[in-house]
Fold these 2 entries.
Entry 1:
Amino acid sequence: AIADLKGLKQGALRLAVVTTAKYVVPRLLGPFCQRYPGIDVSLTVNNHEWVLGSLADNRDDLYILSQLPEDMDVQVHPFLENPLVVLAQRNHPLAHERDIPLKRLAEEPFIMREPGSGTRKAVQKLFDDHMLQLKVKLDLGSNEAIKQAIAGGLGISVLSLHTLALEGHNSQLTILDVEGFPIQRNWYVIYPSGKQLSVIARTFFDYLLNEGKSVAEETAFQGVFSKGLKPEGH
Ligand code: PGA
């Protein structure tokens, strides 16, 4: 194909990703775009429900999310871990406790993502499975707003570990050591089963699966696994 002439790929890549992927996918795009300077990327970041809508309407080339669509025929490939952790203000009374029971969390004021969020779905399912009711103090439509609310002492929350990228040692947030956490999840890159991927989309897809993890470990993970944010013994 002309787009492939001399290995110089030219064209557009359209990605739709869930909110937590914005902490990693741009880092992955760096080396990719250096390698293929002729590829222009459009990256849309929104919540789980919105990404599913985009998938259903075939608006983008590839989709990245952590929970799979239930009634769509899709090709699914995990490429990176996306664990959920319990976050609290750094000087929270539970900050130094170990193996905090889940039901103890249910007594804390909780800050929840908006309806339509995959994070919210996963949290709700865990508490439903244990027949526990969360004390939801407020709903916020952004991971960053939730982090600020935690730092401001409004409550605790459960978010992807990746939301701590760039937090560093002086972060006002800490990870609580709670029974059943971290909730292990992955990001999946998916596309409709019947869809023929463009050369460009296929190139990014292969890059994600072959190199995504190692590039993420070199770049995006640096802040996340810094000592200050890791509870001892983890
Ligand atoms: P959300 O999805 O932005 O819809 O919460 C993020 C995730 O599942 O990691």
Entry 2:
Amino acid sequence: TSMEYRYLGKSGLMVSCLSLGGWVTYGGQVSPEVAQMCMKTAFDNGINFFDTAEVYSGGQCEIDMGVAIRKFGWKRSDLVISTKLFWGGKGPNDRGLSRKHIVEGTDASLKRLQLDYVDLLYAHRPDPDTPMEEIVRAFNFVIEQGKAFYWGTSEWSGQQICEAHAVAQRLNLIAPLMEQPQYNMFHRDRVEKEYLPLYKTFGMGATTWSPLASGLLSGKYNDGVPPDSRLAIEDNAVMKRLRESLESEDGRVKIQKVAQLGHIAQQLGCTTAQLCLAWCLKNPNLSSVITGASRPSQIEENVKALQVVPLLTEEVMEAIEGVLQNRPVL
Ligand code: NDP
């Protein structure tokens, strides 16, 4: 496979259009050795962008991903590393987007990652309790200090992002460059509708998460929850909720749709996961689709989604819309 690299929004930075993140998996579900093998498989397939967060597995995700980065002796300039700040610990000042937490949280993340800087630093959620001027100033400061190159937002509303840009413009500070929203066949409105003006007006890039809806869109849950899958994890509240949601009416409808998508994939000669990833990649406003993987074989399968993109003709895209029935009304 030859990887495709896209500009991150209007910036001059190039990110692989498929990237790899560590949520739930690295520092948690799998051993450091498996995390290393996954990252190596990704890198060997041209993935240069790796995503983590201070909150993932209580900091252990950054530690395990940092060890992998060191171990293989990759050139720093060949990597784009991102982390996210918001939930840094239990203390009243270990969370949110105060200047104190942005500055201290960045330092703590860099220490866990064993890095001098990250390429991308995200505000993991909006913080309505901190003034926007304080937030923009703090990210600007961290960038001026050389501890990050670009900053962005994750799951902010279009309006909150516009406010950040207005503050940055007024004070001549660095504005957010990218958003990290959820985007998959079951979750479309923000990326396809709400954010449209942001790509145009501000040149923002989207780096999207959960392209397989935590694995649901691979078809692996069509006949129940396999014991070696993420949703089988017992002591994780998010996975418990997802597992239970499969039993609901909404969950059953989704599983039926995944099975129908499986037929489309079969006709194209690809897997359901590849079809769903390729469908994300078709969207030109996406700079990178952040994938997840608990084993190297999933990465090998998922990077081949690049070869499926050209097979998604208008006719196939319409067939997919026919299954999904959730096209955003613009
Ligand atoms: P996905 O929806 O793609 O789910 C990935 C999981 O699905 C894998 O860990 C694996 O789990 C399973 N899987 C992947 N490929 C296959 C395959 N080919 N066949 C079968 N199963 C497969 O992405 P994530 O939910 O992991 O999100 C990706 C990244 O996005 C995260 O790591 C994180 O960096 C970021 N993210 C950001 C958020 C934010 O708020 N900003 C929130 C959530 C994620 P298993 O083998 O255990 O079944």
